[in-house]
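Lab intake sheet, docking and co-folding queue.

SAMPLE TYPE: protein with bound small molecule
LIGAND NAME: uridine-5'-diphosphate-glucose
LIGAND FORMAT: SMILES
REQUESTED OUTPUT: full 3D complex as structure tokens
PRIORITY: normal
SUBMITTED BY: R.K., bench team

The fields below were copied directly from the construct record.
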Amino acid sequence: SNCPQSPFSLLAHGRSVVHQDRHRPGRVTDQAFVTLATDDVYCQGALVLGQSLRNHTTSRKLAVLITPEVSSGMRSVLRSVFDEVTEVDALDSADSVRLALLQRPELGVTFTKLHCWTLTHYSKCVFMDADTLVLCNVDELFDREEFSAAPDSGWPDCFNSGVFVFRPSLKTYNLLLQFAAEHGSFDGGDQGLLNSFFSNWATADIGKHLPFIYNLSSSAVYSYVPAFNHFGRDTKVVHFLGATKPWNYKYNLQTKRVMQDGTTSGSFHQLSFLALWWNIYSASILPLLEKFQKMEESESEEWKHTFSGVEITLKKVDPSVANSLQMPVLPEQASEAHPTACSSEELTFKAQPVYETEQRGSSIHLSEPDRPSKQHASHPAFQETSELNEVTSSVSEVSIHLKPEEPNPEDERRKWEEGRMDYMGKDAFEHIKKKLDTFLL
Ligand SMILES: O=c1ccn([C@@H]2O[C@H](COP(=O)(O)OP(=O)(O)O[C@H]3O[C@H](CO)[C@@H](O)[C@H](O)[C@H]3O)[C@@H](O)[C@H]2O)c(=O)[nH]1
Ligand SMILES: [Mn+2]
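RESULT FIELD (auto-filled):
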């Protein structure tokens, strides 16, 4: 073991000694996977991540940090997947100039991530972004020390802050805040800040470099396809990094295919990872949401599941449209039980078929050069799907949206005073600048 000093290393590594039953492994109660969700939509991602960790029988606790915006209904749902739901204050970098430079103004809220260091009832944690997904058990990450992370595909001397090992400590937390106040973040988000803070990550200790398979950016697959074909079979964690998240796609429940919106043309594997996310969502999370609030049928062929801050729309689509989406995202459903580990023999990422998108009318149709052979999707995780639930027999397309809120002037003023601004919407820098200009001119 890399961590012989830990009294829990026995539990972690000698599982069969502690518990004979693989499916009821010894729980390690002072270590946790931690994620973050600042609104009801990111909660959908957190729920899928949490469920994926459960599906692969983690022996660690599951914790989620939320901010006051997360609705009470969603908190109940979170509590049924996570062991601990902790409310923290939103912590914005409030550095709109740099955030604007980054063209991702919404990332300011990721400073809230720093709160994970305050979870001092855990001795060690693994932080995972809400847009990540585990494909197998990754409990071995707890053998690593603070600060361990995988290289960022955009600048490999930097780590990506979507998956990292850390030790909660109020001392570190305060040092981070102080550092943030003094130096800001070179990218306006937590990743720039953390890279400047843990600045010797690239050079000091190779043990703190997590292999890329623990944080595989689904889009990075394109930048080095032969490497993905060679190593991709061992992928353990997929990260849907970037502006378009799995929940921004639409999903056809019957065909189990991700429907594209025209702005993306994903490769087979990228779409496979997306379909895997949606598979977990439709099999485990949708039924959970339903349990907490019954879905209502409207006069149209549309079911709107208005769940506090989030609207989940189930829509019947024209079968011809559904069928025209030839994207084969999942293999024929496997009858075997859920796989519990990645096995390299079962997966061969070979040739990468190219899927072309063509615009016909308003919907995107995908044409497939060849029906992919089984080898493409034989990663055991791609078979992790359960029976379709009742919803699927009557509806087809699912989509997730943030419920539009009636702005309340009092609330808006309070948000401003608390430093919580609507960076994307009416408080976007360009809007603020326009407003300032009208005062100055
Ligand atoms: O409105 C938001 C935005 C983010 N998050 C949380 O913060 C994480 C990071 O944001 P994300 O949208 O996933 O950013 P990425 O596209 O992954 O972009 C990169 O840049 C971010 C800012 O530096 C880092 O936090 C990421 O780890 C890094 O991968 C999310 O996964 C969530 O857990 C929210 O809860 N609400
Ligand atoms: Mn992310």
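REVIEWER NOTE: The chain has three domains: 9-217, 246-402, 409-440.
SIGN-OFF: pending second check by T.M.
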